[in-house]
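Team,

Forwarding the record for the chain on the shared tracking sheet. I've put the sequence and predicted structure together so nobody has to dig through attachments.
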Amino acid sequence: MGRKRNTEESIAGTYEISTGELVVKPDPFRDGAFILDINGVPSSHLVPDEPRALEFEYMRWIAAAVEHLAPGKRLLHLGGGGCSLPRYFADLWPDSHNTVVELDAKLAELIRELADIPSAPRVKIRAGEARAVTEGFPPHRFDVIIRDVFAGAVTPESLTTKEFFQHAHTTLRPGGLYVANCGDHSDLQGAKAELAGMAEVFEHIAVIADPPMLKGRRYGNIILIGSDAELPADGSPAAAAMAKPLLSGAVPAHFRDESWTRQFFSGVLPRHDAVTRAESSARTDS
């Protein structure tokens, strides 16, 4: 589009995008920062010229997991929004390649104008539906997949099934890392169903969340982790190293290892494509 615009006067405003509208408004608590609302939902936080400023706690948790567990620096980001995490990793690892899949084509184009996003191959933004694009990649393309896709306040069911996890697993290189942001209610049934599906695809699983969320006391974010490479055990030096950034934010979070995680979702069945399609069709018919 045009040149990047990095002042409050030029960035703040309402923009038409493919799926509705993007509202960029100044952050009332931080000078020079902005909150990006996509179709009425706060989706990203932007501090121009400060790519490592991650205001959303769950993004800090994802960053901590990837920094400590990633086997390489080819990252696939499913869900673009304001490209907070791609900006972060492109700055943290200048030699990294970040591929972003964003459903909203106009948003994907607009965000390059509004934010200081490095050009390809450091950050490549591709318009498309996350499930379909993931299925189209060749095997062993990426070291890390980060799923942060929402339609409103929920992740599309097609990105929560065992079959989707199988496609993600195929797209990852051996020992690659899958990390997903799961927004869930206090019963945590969505997170448990996803973990049940992931456990049938990945050899090892773990989670990150703040204690009230893990105890089922409120709606919030829980980070789901899967890999065929061994993940840290509670009490290990690797888990202790990850704990430092997780505990440093305004909302301290805990890493829970495989043993805890398998007990957490015990007895819950995974979702499957055929079931989710049938349920979607039934809702449409009604």
